[in-house]
Structures are given as structure tokens and as C-alpha cells.
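To fix ideas, we close by showing one paired sequence and structure record:
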Amino acid sequence: VETVGGMISGIRVFAYRQNGVTDISSASKIESMYRRAEMYGAPVIAFLDSSGTDVSQSLDCLAAYGRIFAAIETAKKSIPTIAVVEGKCVGSAALIPALSDFVVMVENKGSVLLCPPYTTGGIDAKAVSAEGFSAVVADTADFFCSDDESLSLTIRNILSVIPANKSVAPPAGAYDDPERELADNNPEVGAVIRAVADFGGFLEVKPNTANEAVCGFIKINCASVGVAGIRGSLTVAGIEKLTNHIEFCNAFSIPLVTFQNIEENCPFSFMANEHASVLNAAAKLAAAYSRKNAPKISVTTGASFGTPALFGSKPLGADISFLWADGAYVTALSKEAIGKVIPQAATENENFIDMIIPALQTRKYIIAALEFCRRGRGGM
């Protein structure tokens, strides 16, 4: 294990590289790295290519890994943690990326295996290939990189939109005209997010997982903002994707803007045996939205109906809620009813809508709402 401290784009960071089998001494160095980073208020970047524990040291090494996991979980309460999977990450080492805030996977090289394929599924189970495991675990990665250049750029992009610790704000971005209008009124959530962002920049998290949910970070009026979008029937994976992202924004007091335009005929999508899973996941998402750690803004660009209409809404904690003129809130579970709803009628219920806004001026209204909320919270 190699450990180092330094600066990336003016931000202090601590980093370590884990290669091969990890023994007690190496595990202790990793644990100390997280403790020290927490003390200095600096993010930790882990570069992982590990074959797991040194079996010759048996339970002592396993116990050392337990202390690493505890150190990561404690550090996450005050600093961001990033894991770069640049090779095989096997056994206990596989929990390090799982515990980290962000996971960067190096394509065609990185893989995460909690257990070697031949040890899973019981005595009578068929062997599962490492490639099969990687295909599943890759879905949990937040970012993918093809080479060292894209890896370096991704890490810099992440550090540019998140705070170094809970006591500071993220780095400020370059100035972009706050009065700039959107080029069109396309209600598609991903398009709207890019349109309202400074210079159209959008760092999307988990772009290859659960496309009905959109998560990531943008700069708006030079400040970092977390964004969440719902554009289809929510699956368990989509709900968990949203929840994890919102929880991170809550933990580091990052303002959140939620965009909704459900383009499907049903608000949820799940198999019969997933009913309990989607119910529990939706409850956790509702809880994440209800926490008032930072300003929360809601923008409905099209249809918002059924239970998902609550996610990001005023009743669940949004400070300000906007509706496009062509948008609508509908309680029915069928999209057939949406055309029968008069959008303006939504303003009669102040529980959901503060204002109907012109689509092309969405960026200006979001900037004004965030500034209003920051001043109301003491300049957060």
C-alpha cells in the first residue's frame, strides 16, 4: 500500500494505492489514512487493485479490514470518499468501493468480486464467471473511464463540484449569464438539466444505471447544485440511485433541484416479487427528500402523477416549486387523465405549486429561488 497527500486543482486530498494481497500492516496504513484525512478535512481517493486479505494472517487481517470499514464510515460523515477500481478488487477489499461516496471504474480492467466465483451460491451451484460478476457490479459504478487521461479528468470534475468537507462550500465555477434563456421548451429532463446549467455542463452520476432516474451535479450561477430527475416508471434501482444521491447532497448541504416529467403510463415498474423492495426503497427516498439540510427546488416540466409526484415536492420538503405552463400534477395512476387536467388549476393548491413559469426562463427562476433560500438560511 502506498499513501500520499497532495493538491489537485488547489484542493488538498489524501490518496492511497492498494496493490495485491493486503496484510495487517497495509490495512493499518489505510485505516490511518482515513483518520488523517478526516482530521485535515480533505477528500480521500482510493486506487484499488487488490486480491483481498493475506490468508496466512487469518482473522487478524480480517479484523484489520473491519477497522478500515469503520474508518471509512466515520470519515464519510465529514469528508467525501472516492474509490477508483483500476484492477481486480476481491473479497474484503470489494467493500471499500461499496462504502465510498463515489466509485470510478476503469473499463476493461476494473472488477469487483465480493467472493471468488467458485465460492458463491452453495455447494450445488454452478460456477459464475468473473465477467458475470463484473457485469452486475459495474452497474453500481458512478463513473467509467477508458484511460489515464479520462480518469484524471473525471477525478478533477468530481472535486470541482463537491465540497472538500462539510465545513466549506464547493469550488466556485466560471461566470455564465444568469439571464440566459433556454433555447427551446423541450421538457425532457436530461435536456432541461443541461440547458439550465452554466455552459451546459452536467456531471452525471450512474449514467448507465436506471435511465428513468437522472442524478448528478451542475454549476448554476457559479455555485454547485445537485440535480435529480424523474422521467419514467421508477424501478428499485432507480429509486435507490436517487436516494443515494440525495443523501450525499443532504450530508454536505448541497442545494438540490428536482426535475419531473414522467413519460410512462405507470409511476412504478417492478415484478410481483419486488413489491416489498420497491415499497421500502420508495419510503427511504421520501425520507431523504424530507430532510431539510439545504435548499430544495422542484421543477415540473411535463407530467407528474401518482406517488412520484411527491418526490421533490413542497409537501415533502421542497422550499419552492415551479410548474411549466404545459405541465400538470395528477393524482390518477393513468396518464390518460393528464390531458383532462387544466395546469392552472394546480396553482389553486398551494401545497404543490408556488408559480407557473415560462419554460424558456427556467434558469433565471431557479437562480432566483436558490438565492432566496440561501439568504433565508443565513447565506448557506
